[in-house]
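The aim of this short unit is practical: by the end, you should be able to scan a pair of folded records and say something sensible about each. We start with the first protein, listed as its amino acid sequence and then its structure tokens.
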Amino acid sequence: MNKIGFLFLVVVQLSCVSQNNEKINGVSFVASRGEVKQEQVTVLKNNYVNHAAVMPLGFMKGISSPEIAFNMDNQWFGETNEGVKQYVQSIKKQHIKVMMKPQIWVRRGEFTGTIKMNSEADWKVLEVSYEKFILNYASIAQEMQVSIFCIGTELELFVKNRPAYWTELITRIKSVYKGKLTYAANWDEFKRTHFWEDIDYIGVDAYFPLSQEKTPTIEELKIGWQKHKKVLLALSIAKNKPILFTEYGYRSTDYTARKPWLVERNNSPANLLAQSNATAAIIEEFWKEEWFAGGYVWKWFVNHEKSGGKENNRFTPQNKPAQDVLKRFYKTF
């Protein structure tokens, strides 16, 4: 194929991939102990957020423990069935759309991507338990008319070892929930996920390593994005699906773009510029692209006034310069 023909094919494919012109300007809305108040949702609207991910949790005792516990009396309200409904209702009152994103928490914070059973019998138990968990929230998502439903988050070894199960599970989810589907693949997992053709968005938790610098500039970060961006574009074209950053974000700490997935707590000084630069770079690099659907920043707490702040070195952009960056770009897109 000559160069002109190739470019024409790319344009045609990208026009098919792009579902609409409105970007998903999202936040990952963290569950709390109590009900969300309307003024707490108004803060989202004031920052030009048009999507929020609501994230009920299920719990596993270990990476090889097959049972998933959820909707328990001792859970925080926002993680339960009742809480999820209250959150969705409150968010939608502000004309903000919702992605429901049920997630697994493994005791001691072990990485969900390493969940793997020790026997066929345990795999079968896990499959039944996960289906009960995910269909419960798919049913609520349908009832509440949620815009997007995420079928799983960072479950690489579960997906890899049980491919037929996941193909069938998607069919069962579609029988319950009629909206758009995605899956939140880890940044180093998405190229191997086998079922992108069966769902609507290629979901990526976008913690790609970008720079070794202590405080990288926006331009340095954008250069760091180029190799990853090429891979994402190629997959989008190959699968004819838009890319959605089901999570993205950076800690306000030194070397934030070296290993953005790191979550350990420490007392290192906050580096607000590093976080705001990284936030600006990712939005400048992706939000203008037709093949890119948008993303959900990690993470946003309900009690805005007491969250984040200039001494905080965690992921939230709240009450930091990164929040101003988000507001400015979200208003633009």
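Turning to the second protein, read its sequence before its tokens, just as you did above.
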Amino acid sequence: MIRTIIMKIKTAVVIPNWNGEKYLALCINSLSAQSQKCDVIVVENGSVDGSLELLKNKFPEVITLVQEKNLGFAGGVNAGIRYALENNYEFIGLFNNDAIAHKDWVKNLVGELESDQNSGIVTCKLLKKDKKHIDSTGDLYTSWGLPYPRGRDELDSGQYDEKSEVFSASGGASIYRAEMLKQIGIFDEDFFAYYEDVDISFRAQLAGWKIVYQPKAEAYHQIGGTSSKIKDFTTYQTLKNLPLVYWKNVPFSVAAPMWPKIFIAYWSIFFSALLKGKVIASIKGAVKCHVFMFKKLFIERPKIQKSKTVSNEYIKSIITPGLPPNAYKLQRLRRFFVSES
């Protein structure tokens, strides 16, 4: 008697999609061709461009979760994550609809998670579509409260070819351990888009999970394929979300010396946006930020800090002193802060 053993696929990859028909087929095909199989979940986020028809006609094997409206990146991926958790996947990847995965992307990221039970998230070398310049090799969080993608715009010449721990993983091309998500929770939907991946990474760090950059895994990204469709979207989301990461997650002894720099950085971004004519988006973002701030500070922060398992010194050690490399205007203000410790 011949027995056929069916191996359960343990990895699901969630693609949030909003009007991404022009990118979606290449994205799905790259995941369908992975050397280590994964189930693909597309969260159809209220598109009106033919995305749903494409999925029905060309990709009937894809798990499609149709949402009535655009829930943003955070809400969209959460719909897929909930489905994956309910169906007992061990690992849950997130992948932008305007990205393409190398055939060993899943294999190398899942392999890293399997090799180290302390790793909660593993991220990849994310290159731009030319496959020469870097989009991200993991995100860093600075003492000015400004996150940034490590290596962005640099020519990839092997300078990030060593595996390392990073502060945060890019939500656009990373894999998360289901066990960790059950512990710390899923994405904060108040963020909608931008910095929600830094927020969940910060919560993971506070809970003692490590975030690893694995350069053997590669993906290629068309930056801004979705956000560029909405006027001043980046300005609004940046001004709404940037301080929320700080208010929720930074322990008090680390937060106190950071506050003057964050204050200056935030309002510098605000007034710079005003001077560029982005008045409505800037004001709306700043107002919404302060509405959410009280919820984050007085309701969510105490719960997060109470569940913290690492020391404040550890958190201080993983925050990068100084400013992001591209914060040229803020570099002039840095002289007022003699110490970046």
